[in-house]
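Supplementary Methods. Inverse-folding protocol.

Structures were first reduced to a discrete structure-token string of length 269. This string, shown here, constituted the complete conditioning input.
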């Protein structure tokens, strides 16, 4: 029996993290459709048909691609998944929300396509990279308080894997208590002055779909006394490297956070 008969060989990825994982595994030949939000790796946008956004998809287009596996992420894609299941397609929706489950997703995906060894090796490399960041952060004299803003209207903070990566990078997430909530609507900060009360030393912004505007954050009423604002410690972390729970967050994402925190340490010295 051919390998392509034993394992999925026509895969649609509804989100970026599984696309990037398959490219890193050198199994991108299996991908026949991707999300329109995919930017990693850049070549994916040139090579693969775009068949979905995040909460919407071209269901008929996906069916016509004859995939033997469709990969999605989270409850937000549950309706898309249900439509595809009713069309008789095989659908797997992952729900990875922290570092360990991101690594597990990579290993499970590898098993689904018959590449267990390669997937385990990739996950191990990513885990080692995260451990290197953690070790570097352990040398910090003080852990800064960090406010990560994933949306501005309304304010949303505390996404679980980002909160964990802030800790690994050497900081303390001001809204780590929000990390227990999977849905964005449950992480809304109703009173913007609550950020002021938690007094972050550093503000990181990653407004998915639009550019972070630190000057607008600094101009919010009552925020002039926030240490991060007073010391001009407002930085953008590109959404493409932190808001997808996949390889990007465990590599470029956590290192970008660590770099900001390390420079803050140097300024204090």
């Amino acid at each position: 029996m051919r390998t392509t008969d034993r394992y999925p060989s026509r895969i649609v990825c509804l989100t970026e993290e599984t696309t990037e994982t398959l490219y890193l595994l050198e199994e991108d030949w299996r991908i026949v459709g991707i999300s329109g939000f995919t930017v990693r790796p850049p070549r994916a946008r040139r090579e693969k048909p775009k068949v979905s956004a995040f909460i919407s998809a071209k269901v008929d287009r996906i069916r016509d691609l004859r995939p033997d596996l469709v990969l999605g992420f989270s409850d937000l894609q549950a309706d898309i998944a249900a439509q595809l299941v009713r069309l008789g397609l095989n659908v797997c929706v992952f729900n990875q929300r922290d570092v360990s489950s991101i690594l597990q997703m990579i290993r499970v995906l590898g098993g689904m396509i018959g590449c267990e060894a390669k997937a385990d090796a990739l996950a191990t490399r990513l885990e080692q990279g995260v451990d290197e960041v953690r070790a570097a952060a352990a040398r910090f004299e003080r852990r800064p308080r960090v406010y990560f803003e994933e949306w501005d209207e309304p304010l949303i903070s505390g996404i679980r894997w980002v909160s964990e990566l802030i800790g690994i990078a050497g900081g303390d997430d001001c809204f780590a208590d929000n990390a227990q909530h999977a849905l964005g609507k449950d992480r809304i900060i109703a009173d913007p002055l609550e950020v002021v009360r938690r007094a972050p030393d550093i503000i990181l912004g990653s407004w998915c779909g639009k550019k972070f505007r630190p000057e607008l954050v600094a101009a919010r009423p009552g925020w002039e006394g926030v240490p991060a604002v007073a010391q001009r410690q407002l930085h953008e972390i590109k959404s493409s490297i932190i808001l997808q729970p996949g390889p990007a967050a465990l590599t470029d994402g956590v290192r970008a956070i660590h770099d900001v925190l390390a420079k803050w340490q140097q300024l204090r010295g």
